[in-house]
Amino acid sequence: MTLNVRQLYFEAVKVGDELPPLVKPPVDRLQIARYVGAAGDWNPLYIDEPHARASGFPSAFAPGTIGMGFLAELATDWTRGARLKRLQSRLVKFIWPGDVLTARGRVVERRFEAGDAYTMDLEVWAENQRGELVTRGLATYQLFYSADDETRQRAGQPPLHVTQAEEETRLARLSRAQPQRTPAVSRPLQPARPLAPPTPPPLAAVARVVQAARPASKPAGGARSAAGKPAAKPAARKPAPKKAPARKPARKAAPKKAPARKPARRPAPKKAPPRMPASKKRK
């Protein structure tokens, strides 16, 4: 027989286990119309916008049972094949078009009932995008105790008989078989000490610090120390190495211009010799 490996069994459920949150898409008017048609609840406040505004509401709103359907989807997906025995819910706030609902839940109780029935109670609720509680409810499921119990019941045999005392004994045996971890010893917190104002240093210490900070004066030629030895000369400071002068970048020589050629001078025209008067020629 092929069994569902994702089946949730009663032995694996603990009080306080939280269900993974289920985030639904924004509720739109088409989804509301489809839900109203499937449920047969033709309330005009769900689908008639003018009627809802005339009744004092800001707009048409979704039926409260649509939030109950989201809670049932969350619980059914987590229990994985368990039998639903009871589901009840209560509307806390209106669900408006555009709201994004997130369904959450946790295990609040597990019981060993008569007739070898193993049941648990889930507290479920839904919140909108503003973190406001919209719907809350309670779901009760009956589970198989283990894989052996499921195999027996599917084969037509009576369910596996396990009492709460037997389960506690089995869990205690398993806990003793596992190596125990030494708990970390927590140290008690010490009270905070009050902060005292800082005490000023004595004047003698301040004087010593000031005297050490002053440069030592050069003693006179015949001055000697208190022990009779000549005072040690202060170590001469080595002159700081001179920095080489920064070389200026050599300037590029400007290209020499070719000498301007002088225009050639034309020879002056020769003047004609002065003519002798005619009187002088005759003589």
Describe the fold and architecture:
The protein has helices at 29-39, 44-47, 49-54, 65-79, 147-154, 164-177, 203-213, 278-282, and strands spanning 18-23, 83-91, 102-113, 117-127, 133-143. It is an alpha+beta fold. Among the domains are: 10-26 and 62-171, Thiol Ester Dehydrase, Chain A, CATH 3.10.129.10; 28-61, no CATH class. Strands 1-3-4-5-2 form a five-stranded antiparallel beta sheet, with helices on one face. The chain starts with 17 loop residues before the first strand and ends with a helix.
Reconstruct the topology from this structure:
Elements: E1 18-23, H1 29-39, H2 44-47, H3 49-54, H4 65-79, E2 83-91, E3 102-113, E4 117-127, E5 133-143, H5 147-154, H6 164-177, H7 203-213, H8 278-282
Antiparallel strand pairs: 1-3, 2-5, 3-4, 4-5
Notable characteristics:
283 residues, alpha+beta, Thiol Ester Dehydrase, Chain A, 5 strands, 17% strand, disordered N terminus
- The tally of strands reads 5
Mean pLDDT: 80
Helix content: 25-40%
Element-level helix/strand string: EHHHHEEEEHHHH
